[in-house]
Predict the 3D structure of the following.
Amino acid sequence: MKILKPLTLTIVAASLVANSQGLLAADKKAEKKAKPYPLNVCVVSGEKLDSMGEPFVFAHDGREVKLCCKDCKKDFDKTTAKFVAKIDEAAKKVKPYPLANCIVSDEKLGGDMGEPFVFIHDGREIKLCCKDCKKDFDKNTAKFMTKLDKAKK
């Protein structure tokens, strides 16, 4: 009987840990599927997203939200509907990505690399074959935006 109690506790603890990891994975999956944030500024403060270091990023009702800092989250939570309306209005103005291939690697989107990595840059939807291509895009944004402009024509 002495061994049964610790064994039961161990099983329950292991179950809780496994379940919490499953929830974290589900959160990450939901975050991946979120619609990309369409603004270059914090929807709360109006500051450029990188003005205070790395933006604070989270998913809200199927959309990605980026704030200039974690402190803006309190204001976002107070008047969420107002800020969501601003995000949705900006999203309506986003120009769709016109190509079937990644602008960086020229790989077919949705092919061997899986789901494309999608984000908004200056009011334009960008689709890359993978998240790794984002580093190259960021290093030479002007080159890839010019390539995109030429491809549209």
